[in-house]
Amino acid sequence: MTLTLYNTLTRAKAPFQPIDASNVRMYVCGPTVYDFVHIGNGRPVIVFDTLFRLLRHLYGAGHVTYARNITDVDDKINARAARDYPGLALNDAIARLTEETTRQYQADCAGLGALEPTIEPRATAHLPEMARLCEQLVAKGHAYVAEGHVLFDVASMADYGGLSGRPLDEMEAGARVEVAPYKKGPMDFVLWKPSKPGEPAWPSPCGIATPGRPGWHIECSAMAGKHLGDTFDIHGGGVDLVFPHHENEVAQSRCAHGTPGMANVWMHNGFLQVEGEKMSKSLGNFITINELIASDKFGGQRWPGKVCRMAMLGTQYRSPIDWTVERLAQSRATLMEFADICHGVTASVPDPEFLAALCDDLNTPSALSILHGIAKSAKRGNREAAGALKASLQLMGLYDNETRAEMAAGQPQVTVDAVHVEALIAARLAARKAKDYKEGDRLRDELTALGIMIKDAKDAATGEFVTTWEVRS
Which candidate, 277, 278, 275, places its Cα nearest to that of 323? Predict the structure, then answer.
């Protein structure tokens, strides 16, 4: 089965051809560890975990290397550590903060049903690699030293801007008027900078006497290069990272190693908003993964990690997604239905049509739609369909031995408006009679989200299609 992926670099979808099928390599930008991560940060976790699972299925679990980094050196980390641990020396406070926050992040990822990446490199463990990159770039004329900084010389790279599709002259015109006086060009960016008094500091490269610390972009180039090689298969992250972070990664890596590319395929997931608005603390709609799973902050209830995962996968990864209580409620109801079908069933192999949808640039909405059809067949007693449903859900990270209990735990008490339910059922019957099956399915899903189990049958006396219902226990 051929996997096709959309490549941000080429603006096209194409069959995926690994450099080495015995070691498919993927790098995804991870968090800066200073606080709980929000649900927007959870999207790349879920998206690229799904791709990791699919690659393991296609190439074998032992033939895929997935690296997701931890950034543990940053101004925000310094400020948070000083605030939260005032009795500790800054370096000790930073160590404690980053250790605790990394554990929190890993727990959140596990809560979302994500597998552990093969490698989880930390920035502070790769300072020598970053220093060497700086020295390589200076030696090759792609970087320069100025006032204790090492800066990348953007003008030295003729095709800078290829990933984001931004011409250099337009970027320069849009750059801020006030440019640091030690920069040769307005778009030049920091590879290494001097540390301020009291900040973490390491020996600087390129003959700089004062200790310093790396810039943001150099970290990922160093970590990806060490663990995946100068050129690897897939680089992923959120669409907000395309420029400048990923653009600068490409520039550093290509110019340092003399390669035509850094990663062959660049993948980016779309933005997330909450109930129709951009997520922000000022609007009061900032929600963390931990709050979704472990508190009742969003919608007055806790949402199991697999429900969050299901809700996320209901939208194709490149499209924007609106995070709503209704979306989560529908996902919970669907997973409860699927879990009931899969209970006590032996998993077989993932459904081929389902697999084909996933292999079409991770078309998870289409894959889930196919699973709905398989579930219908399984409910009619088709054990083969039930086994395929279970295996398919396992591949997507949506089913394990705990799923059924997780869906039931914390399920809110259902309050039924019988008149409303009967109206929805009547509308569904009318839609089916008019052969508007899409509307019929939508109404069925609405009933499921309300906690209503429906059963369709033909009246033996009249031959008419009838529906009975009950509240899910």
Answer: 275
Q: Is the dihedral of CA 17, 223, 237, 245 positive or negative?
A: negative
Is the CB of residue 253 less than 8 Å from the CB of residue 230?
yes
Pick the closest to residue 383 from 345, 421, 349, 434 (CA basis): 345
Q: How far, in whole angstroms, is CA 196 from its chain's centroid? A: 34
**How far apart (Å, rounded) are the C-alpha atoms in residues 214 and 397?**
36
120: left (phi over 0), alpha (psi -120 to 50) or beta: beta
C-beta pairs of 276-283 under 8 Å, 24+ apart in sequence: 276/322, 276/324, 279/38, 279/39, 279/40, 279/323
| Helices 39-59 and 90-111: angle between axes, nearest 10 degrees | 60
DSSP summary character for residue 244? I
- The CA distance from 470 to 473, in Å, is 9
**Of the candidates 225, 199, 224, 229, which has an alpha carbon nearest to the alpha carbon of residue 214?**
199
Q: Render pLDDT for 81-117 as a digit per residue (tens, 0 to 9).
A: 999 999 999 999 999 999 999 999 999 999 999 999 9
Q: Shortest CA distance to 291 belongs to which of 104, 444, 418?
A: 104
Q: Which residues contact 91 (CB under 8 A, 6 or more apart)?
A: 200
**CB under 8 Å to 257, separation ≥6 — which residues?**
136, 225, 230, 231
End-to-end CA distance of the chain: 41
> Residues 184-189: what's their mean pLDDT?
93
Tokens encoding 310 = 């299901």
What is the residue whose two structure tokens read 């399920």? 411
**3-class DSSP assignment, residue 182:** coil
- For the chain, the maximum distance between any two Cα atoms, rounded to a whole number of angstroms, is 94
In the structure encoding, which two tokens stand for residue 221, read together? 């180039």
pLDDT digit string (tens) for 382-421? Answer: 999 999 999 999 999 999 988 888 887 755 545 667 888 8
Q: Which residues contact residue 348 at a Cβ distance below 8 angstroms, ignoring those fewer than 6 apart?
A: 384, 387, 388, 390, 391
Mean pLDDT (whole number) for 290-303: 90
Distance CA 341, CA 424 (A): 24
